[in-house]
Structure formats: C-alpha cells, structure tokens
C-alpha cells in the first residue's frame, strides 16, 4: 500500500511486536475520571493565508496535535478532542501491547527537543471501533482516553468535531500535520495544505488503472480524500519526505473555527497522479465518538467552537492574536 504501510516496517524495527489481535478495546480502568477542568476563555488561533507545500510548522500553530508513543518511540499521531480524549486511527492499535507502555504527548513541537509546553500523559484505555475492517479499512478510527483531564493552554487545545449540519464542499483547502517515523532531528512538526476530494471523485481517480490488490471503488462512504489529482503535494509527500504520521489530523478552518474533518488512514504510492491520501471521515463516526466522549465539542454548540473576535496577523510566517 505504498508509503502508508512502509511506516509499519520502520515500527517493527523499533518495537517488539506480539501476536496480532483484533480486540476492539483494551481493558478499561474503572477508576472514576477526575472532574472536567473549566474551559479557557479563548478559541483556536486562525492561520495566515500562507500556502505551504509541506514543511516545518510554527510552534503552537496546531495545539490539538498529539504524539502517540510506545516505549517512548513516536509511532502515530492523534488529535485532542476533549480534556481527556484523543482520536486516532484504529490501525495504530492492531497489536496487543502492555497498555502501561503507551503515552500521549501533548504540546509537542520538536520531538528531539521537548517543548516547555509538553505534557506526557499515561493512557487509561484505548477503544478501537468495533467495526474496524483491516481489509476495506472502514471504521479505521480509535479513541484514546488519558488517565486525567489535561489543562488547556495556548499550545494544548482541542479541535472541534463537525456536526451533521456542518457542510464542507469539495475542493475546500485544509491542513494535514504530523511527525512521521523517519523525520530527521530535531523532528519538527510538519504541515501541508491540501484540498478536499469527496468520495465519488476520489473513487473516480482510484479507478483509473486500478491496483488489483485494492480493486475498484476502494474509497468507502466513511472516507474522504485530500490532495491533488495531478500528484502534487499531499500528506503522502510530507509522510515520505518529512513524515506526516498515520492517525494524524486533517483540519479545516470554517469561518474561524477549526474542525477535525479526517484522520490519516491510507494511500497508494507517494505523490502519484490520481492517488490522493485517504482519511477516515469523522462526520461518519460522530455519534460513536460522542457516545464515549460526551464533552467533545461539536459544531457551534460548545465553547471551543464559538467564534471569537480575534485579529489576524502574520509573524515570521505564523500567526498572532490581537484584541480579545
């Protein structure tokens, strides 16, 4: 499956795997969760209009990005969606590991040089979607519960989940971020800007000289694509060259509010024409997520999803906030 599965080869060299298992959820710690901390009095920053073809992200630009680690090795990305919950890809948890060896790092920027804002949390439980299918890759989504709720800061904030009424047209430009496995030191968080491609249009691309291993119409209704038909920049380019991690976020700005539109799932080759990267479409799993995580912000209904009056400015290619 091209670059997506090459990452697992690198992981094999780092981690002593055990026998594969398709257990839908790891053991649950029944200890009651601590009370949810109060929300901060601000929302996510806007981005400058800079077009980035794949490169280093400014520190603090993507405060929901997390690094999921096993034995202190980064192997998958994820997105903070509430004070105690992270969403990632199910295929990141296809193996039976001792749960105590997992950690989720928040507030990271350069993995080789820990940020002062970094917070490293143990994991309480990992819930893989019960309908996850390793063959079709449908339901490639998982939830990770932290042992305790985190305190939000400017560099640790949740991203919003799109509700059923939040429409995002095809060709809207969004952002993919992550670190990957083979990123050279100091292992700076990477970002790339890509347009959305709906399921019908994406299948039309994959049906051009289809790979017999995946067949026709491999992009299922619970998936969404992002990239360029002509094979320009996409998350695959950063994944192969700089390392956007599987399980990481596809985030879209809509009227000043950032939504988690997708989770990096799979792709064929790298930078090839008619082969954009495929993501789990979070809209398809909203009810499942909210069933486990009722405090996850949705659309315009929660504090993190309310637009605020922030000015937009550029500072060394990044962003600045003015005027609360």
TrEMBL record:
Keywords, sorted A to Z: Disulfide bond, Glycoprotein, Hydrolase, Protease, Serine protease, Signal
Domain Peptidase S1: 51-289
Alphabetical GO biological process terms: proteolysis
Range of residues in the leader sequence: 1-25
Keyword Hydrolase among UniProt keywords: yes
GO molecular function, one term: serine-type endopeptidase activity
Stored PROSITE patterns: TRYPSIN_DOM, TRYPSIN_HIS
Name of one Pfam family that matches: Trypsin
Keyword NAD belongs to the record: no
Annotated InterPro entries: Peptidase_S1_PA, Peptidase_S1_PA_chymotrypsin, Peptidase_S1A, Trypsin_dom, TRYPSIN_HIS
Protein name (database record): Peptidase S1 domain-containing protein
